[in-house]
Design brief:
It is a single chain. The radius of gyration is 16 Å and the shape is elongated. The protein is α+β, with helices and mostly antiparallel strands and about 120 residues long. It has 3 helices and 5 strands; from the N terminus they run ααβββαββ. Helix 1 crosses helix 3 and helix 2 (about 20-35) runs antiparallel to helix 3. Strand 1 (about 45) and strand 2 form a beta hairpin. The protein has a 3-stranded antiparallel sheet with strand order 3-5-4, with no helix packed on it. The protein has a two-stranded antiparallel ribbon with strand order 1-2. The chain has one domain (about 5-105).
Length: about 120
């Protein structure tokens, strides 16, 4: 199970206990993403039978409309009670999927003393 912003947005958009003023814009943005953002065909890298990790999804710098829509959804998720933070990096890790708007990458191995 995922705990990313898309997972949360879909869950809250379908939650009848949430007010319509939250559900409606979440639905609108999710429909926009369904039309304008390809679904990655790969989130893991396998070596033989073993998985080497699950990828982290990043928007590319040229995906301004996507980033804006995600920002709008995250404001709503924050208001509902699910804090979402943004992270930027020039080195997202080992790419396992890419398209014009996003990259899925395995995180770099981090030293145990370093916090990101």
């Amino acid at each position: 199970m995922s705990n990313g912003p898309f997972y949360l947005a879909y869950a809250m958009a379908q939650d009848q206990d949430q007010p319509a003023y939250y559900r409606a814009p979440l639905c609108e943005n999710l429909l926009w993403f369904e039309a304008h953002l390809p679904v990655p065909n790969r989130f893991q890298r396998r070596m033989g039978r073993a998985s080497t990790g699950i990828g982290v999804c990043w928007f590319r710098g040229n995906a301004a409309p996507h980033i804006g829509r995600m920002r709008d959804m995250c404001v709503i998720l924050n208001e509902i009670g699910y804090p979402v933070t943004r992270h930027w990096t020039a080195e997202p890790g080992l790419p396992i999927y890419q398209d014009d708007f996003q990259i899925v990458a395995l995180e770099h191995t981090r030293p145990t003393h370093e916090c990101w």
